[in-house]
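Quick one: examine the sequence and fold tokens given here and explain what the tokens say about the fold. Here goes:
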Amino acid sequence: MDKETWNKFIFANSGSFLQSWEWGEFQRAFGRRVFRLAGEDWQAQFIEMTAPVINKKYWYAPRGPVIANSQEPIANGKIQEFVDKIKVEAQKEDVMFWRIGPGWKLANDDNFKKLGFKKLHYDIEPSQTLILELDEGEEELLGKMHEKWRYNIRLAERKGVKVKFTSSDDVNFEQYFEEFYRLVNEGTSERKNIKHHPKEYYRKQLEISGDLKMKLFVAEYENKIIAANILSVFGGTATYLHGATSSEHREVMAPHLLQWEQIKYAKQAGCAKYDFWGIVNEHTLDKRGPSWAGFTRFKKGFGGREENYIGYWDYPLNKFWYFIYKLAQKIRR
């Protein structure tokens, strides 16, 4: 299947950028094998991973599979066809298990268990998120924010905070990218004890082109970048993927204005939704630090509705090695 046909199906069925052809090529750039499998009315892009310590392979489909014309795929025959097909293909590659994390709404998961899946008690990508619908005007969107957030946006504007964005082929990209990574490496990660990706990961992510577009947004104050975010745009949805802020000049509220300018950009780009990409709520399975509570408060101040997904599920093929893998995971975590 070619790129155009693959992405057309993902678009038509509200699939995630993580199932886009471009995301698969991004993974290939890091030496990972990618398997794109499809049936009559489903598609799934799997990334081959190697489990640490035991050095065994497994497949992982982030926000996959994507199944056509179904609000509850688990309740019809399509999921069984998918399972049967993946079992055969995965066994050919000698993987110990395969993992899915579909973008399906949280529901009773008994049928998943009956099919042979094992639920993960932690997330890979967030299973709880906040979605802002962009079908209203800017004033209406502002009006639905918490009043303090509106005040902070206007405060940042009055203080002279400037927001700019760039792409990897722009002349100013290197300057902005270096400042972004400085904030990631020295600011957010150290101050909040949050793990981050290597520098090259962010660079290659921002170099993605095609139907999946990546933008680097920066907030500048007194000629210094004090906040920066990466935004993806795919299939009518803009997603706030990564962010970093400085501990300096927090009083000028740059992150609020930066987020608002990204929302406006998404709307102007024709997106119907803005995904804040991760919150914590009563459905969150894995324990996260107090920073996540702060992130959640910040994101919810902009309005939007919560969405809760069904989570991540493993299908063991080699039960012995899957047991060893889970044991090693338990020790490491």
In short: The chain has eleven helices and 14 strands.
